[in-house]
Design brief:
Radius of gyration: 32 Å
Number of strands: 27
Largest sheet: 7 strands, mixed
Strand content: 25-35%
Distance between the termini: 79 Å
Shape: globular
Helix content: 10-25%
Structural class: alpha+beta
């Protein structure tokens, strides 16, 4: 019998259920491209699931019925939902039917993503790539919360919390023998009229048919179940324990629009050929599993890739996503470059930079360099530049940084005013004096946002003459600062505060190890000290460090008592080869007390 005009012929598959106690494994979803096109063809043919699939302890997935049709790598059987218009999104955000947040994709499971849950404590789950609707990690999206029937019940957690509930769930599944049970999966590809169907097991959930499998599945094997399925199968639990059931619900949602692309749309991975005949594209398979596979033109790939693909098994390539139509399983992109061999240090570092959207280097365009061309390395502030600044050149100011630091952007001073009263100042390099608003330098700095520190090099935010010279608080030279000065006692109580522009001349460039020797009162501390400038003495710097340490410890104690969160993460330090300057080893970077000395005044 032919279907009505405009309606597709229904596709019906029947299979024999496995014996009781064995699970039914749904075939893998065809997106975002984790399997080849030919495997899709084989997986979606009608077949006996009990014979083709080994018993699984994974719960059956809620798979759209139309996914069981053969699909190519180009077109999805069920298209992604079209994005809402800007006006509809604005209206939805205004009337609180839509919400806004950045997407966070699970690194270990690309089908799980999360956004803020406006009605609960736990995050809202975007369950599957269809719910994420082509949004990538860090994208800012507009999303809606699904109806409760499309939420998930944490079945195992529900059973663990109550023996009575466990009995109600297990009892209906207790059957004798291994009856032969059949299940029917059908799809017309038509989701029209879904809103007219009643809630429950036969209803459409977000336009996706629920699988109606009548075979017996052990509940202990089910991790999560659709709420509508749970209500249909275990009505006694819903009626008797509604509150406990609500505690074990996972709210789900769906993306309706991408407001802002927070992801750089660049990925690094390996090239794989499509199994389609006369394919004009190849697939870039990203090493970051949160990124989808990307179709790139074969014309941009190495000429011998088709004839000798094994030669590129260990080669890393970079690609950029250009578009992602709603009916395509994979986004379309362009190949940027071949990076190098997988596992090599240089290639892996470049891969990290490209994947995070860092496409700049230590070099700057000439238009940027022209903005600092008028400053020489021996620059000194003029009388006009000094006039409106507080002069700290007579104070014993010094920097405390890692031993390998080149850009010294903060300094400290501590003057004892009385027995228990100190003047403590923090001085930050005044970068704004050298960067004109709206200039090419300003725009480049805004793009880079920060200096990028790698194990063997630093990619600076500003040209070297600024980072390493004019905006670095080097000892013995005048430098412009933005300063804050507190009058504070040893307990950490602040009596007075001053903020403004200043000018300093650092007395010494200290490392954390130098400061720690003073705190520990270790032998040989004076001999290990660097050169001291400005006529100041070792004893003056030593007394300043000890006073700063006393005040910082009381400040830290006060923060902790007031509920400050303390996060002590293990940090790794790298050992560099003296000749190549590349990492040749590593060690644990231990935190010492001089670190907290500086941190407390940066936090204050």
């Amino acid at each position: 019998m032919e279907p009505p005009p405009g309606q597709r012929r229904p596709v019906v598959f029947k299979f024999t259920a496995p014996p009781v106690g064995e699970n039914v494994a749904a075939p893998p979803r065809p997106f975002p491209g984790r399997v080849s096109a030919n495997r899709h063809q084989r997986q979606y043919k009608a077949r006996n699931f009990a014979q083709d699939h080994k018993p699984s302890r994974q719960p059956p997935r809620q798979v759209p019925a139309s996914h069981y049709r053969p699909i190519s790598s180009k077109v999805l059987p069920v298209a992604f939902e079209e994005y809402w218009s800007e006006q509809d999104v604005a209206d939805g955000l205004k009337n609180k039917t839509l919400f806004r947040d950045s997407v966070r994709i699970n690194q270990k499971n690309f089908e799980e993503a999360f956004v803020d849950n406006p009605g609960g404590v736990a995050d809202l789950l975007l369950n599957g790539v269809m719910a994420r609707n082509r949004a990538l990690n860090d994208d800012i999206v507009a999303y809606r919360v699904n109806e409760k029937r499309a939420w998930l019940v944490k079945v195992q957690d529900l059973m663990k919390g109550s023996p009575e509930i466990s009995q109600l769930i297990i009892a209906p599944n207790a059957v004798n023998g291994s009856p032969s049970t059949s299940a029917t999966i059908s799809s017309t590809g038509d989701t029209a009229g879904a809103a007219d169907k009643p809630d429950g097991c036969e209803a459409l959930v977000d336009g996706v048919n629920r699988l109606d499998i009548n075979c017996k599945i052990p509940p202990t094997d089910i991790k999560n179940m659709l709420y509508c399925d749970f209500c249909h199968k275990y009505p006694e639990v819903v009626a008797q324990y509604p509150d406990k059931l609500d505690e074990q619900l996972i709210a789900t949602g769906k993306v309706v629009s991408i407001i802002k692309q927070g992801n750089c749309r660049k990925a690094v991975g390996k090239l794989r050929l499509l199994t389609e005949k006369k394919a004009k594209d190849a697939l870039l398979c990203p090493t970051d599993h949160r990124m989808p596979r990307i179709r790139v033109p074969l014309s941009q790939c190495p000429p011998d890739l088709s004839n000798n693909p094994k030669a590129y098994d260990n080669a890393l390539f970079a690609a950029e996503i250009q578009s992602w139509p709603s009916n395509c399983a994979f986004p379309t992109g362009s190949l940027i470059k071949q990076i190098g061999r997988s596992g090599s240090f240089e290639a892996e570092v470049e891969a990290i930079l490209i994947s995070n959207g860092i496409n700049w280097s230590s070099e700057f365009d000439q238009s940027v360099l022209d903005c600092v061309g008028g400053f020489a390395e021996d620059w000194q502030p003029s009388e006009d530049e000094r006039r409106d600044r507080r002069d700290f050149t007579g104070d014993c100011v010094f920097t405390i940084d890692p031993a390998t630091a080149r850009d010294l952007d903060d300094a400290l001073h501590c003057n004892k005013l009385s027995d228990d009263l100190f003047e403590i100042g923090v001085h930050i390099a005044d970068v704004s004096h050298f960067v004109s608003a709206g200039s090419a330098l300003d725009e480049e700095a805004a793009t880079r946002t920060t200096s990028t520190y790698l194990p063997h090099q630093v990619i600076p935010m500003l040209p070297r003459i600024l980072c390493d010279q004019l905006c670095s608080l080097q000892p013995g030279v005048h430098r412009l600062t933005l300063s804050i000065v507190w009058t504070i006692d040893s307990t950490g109580s602040i009596h007075n505060t001053w903020m403004g522009k200043g000018i300093i001349r650092s007395a010494a460039k200290l490392s954390y190890e130098h400061a720690q020797l003073v705190i520990d009162d270790a032998e040989g501390q004076q001999e290990s000290f660097p050169e001291i400038h400005g006529g100041f003495s070792f004893d003056q710097i030593r007394n300043s460090i000890l006073n700063l340490f006393t005040v910082s410890q009381n400040l830290k104690r006060g923060r902790v008592e007031n509920g400050a969160l303390k996060i002590d993460k293990v940090k790794i330090g790298f050992v560099l080869d003296e000749e190549t300057k590349l990492p040749c080893g590593f060690n644990q970077y231990d935190s010492i007390m001089s670190h907290s000395l500086v941190e407390e005044f940066m936090l204050l």
